[in-house]
Design goal:
Length: 304
């Protein structure tokens, strides 16, 4: 876990409790933080009954040979800081981390979490030179989980029976695929009118902001850590789950040269395939708009 903040530390605990790794190492720039959190977590092992070791580190040497790096390191936007200031600052952090990962674990898989997600995944891929199977961004599982959770509340049904898919960039331009939502196999459009569905879509788009405004400081981490843990599980157990993730597109969905959320098969080697869903005209143009937004931020970075 690179970054032992809210998402990083919660992910570490979830991974340990499920014994998805032999060892979880936490790294952070704040002295003592990763060591303190990892020790506290390890002390929960006898009660929770897991044998995954947890250790905090302040440098990368001992991470050499790690299979998966979850990168959550970064700064949050502070008052007075523009979105583009944040992009530049986090890009510099991600570049320095990516160099360390490539130097110590050239075979690793990187799961990017830091915002702006799609662009930070690009920075990690560019810096490491890793092929696209090994740099994957987490966003779609979280956005889809939010959408599913709101639908389940609205209909008062089990979340397990709500299937949905959210594509696109991680931001307000994300694209919830209403046409593919089903509840126990029944299309959502047969169960709710357009207006109710649109309200759920809107709440999903603003899901991150809803949490931020309630928390006042900091952003969501329980659902984000659950999402990245699911990606880790599919990779380390080679489950080949089909999950929406942000990956480098090379012509899929008619798009190329950017990271964007699409349905991906995740297994032992990382990204093992991209599944192409048929989109309505409206969904396709929404995806194109979302892609244009991500490209705009990428261009701002290269103009640096
Ligand atoms: O869907 C998604 N992808 C997201 C993204 C969902 C939730 C959070 N999202 C983003 O993840 C969020 O906007 C942030 O960019 C990251 C991490 O969120 P978190 O809530 O965990 O932030 P914290 O608690 O501030 O933790 C960040 C930690 C903090 O402890 C810093 O000291 C550390 O990152 N940090 C570093 N660690 C290692 N190396 C370097 N260079 C470094 N710089 C800061």
């Amino acid at each position: 876990m690179v970054g032992a903040g809210h998402v990083g530390a919660t992910t570490a605990q979830r991974i340990a409790e499920r014994e998805l790794a032999r060892e979880v190492l936490l790294i952070d720039v704040v002295p003592g933080l990763p060591e303190g959190k990892a020790l506290d977590q390890w002390e929960s092992a006898p009660v929770e009954g897991f044998d995954t070791r947890l250790r905090g580190l302040s440098s990368y040497e001992e991470t050499a040979g790690s299979g998966v790096y979850v990168v959550t390191a970064g700064l949050a936007r502070k008052p007075g800081m523009s979105r583009s200031d944040l992009v530049m600052k986090n890009a510099a952090i991600i570049r320095s981390i990516a160099k360390e990962i490539a130097a110590h674990s050239p075979q690793a898989i990187i799961l990017m979490v830091t915002n702006p997600l799609d662009v930070m995944a690009y920075v990690a891929k560019e810096t490491t030179g890793f092929d696209r199977r090994r740099v994957i961004g987490m966003a779609g599982i979280l956005d889809t989980a939010r959408f599913r959770s709101f639908i389940a509340l609205e209909l008062d049904v089990s979340v397990q029976d709500v299937q949905a898919l959210v594509l696109g960039g991680h931001g307000d331009s994300m694209v919830p695929l209403v046409s593919s939502v089903s509840v126990g196999g029944i299309p959502l459009t047969q169960m709710l009118d357009e207006e109710r569905i649109e309200a759920l879509v809107e709440r999903t788009r603003k899901g991150g902001g809803e949490i931020v405004s309630l928390l006042k400081s900091g952003s969501a981490y329980y659902a984000p850590s659950a999402a990245v843990t699911q990606m880790c599980e599919s990779i380390v157990r080679d489950k080949k789950r089909v999950l929406p993730c942000s990956v480098w597109l090379e012509g899929e969905y008619g798009l190329e040269g950017l990271f964007l959320g699409v349905p991906c098969k995740l297994g032992r080697v990382g990204l093992e395939g991209i599944l192409e869903a048929e989109l309505t005209d409206g969904e396709r143009s929404a995806l194109e708009r979302s892609a244009a937004e991500v490209k705009e931020t990428m261009e701002a970075l290269s103009a640096e």
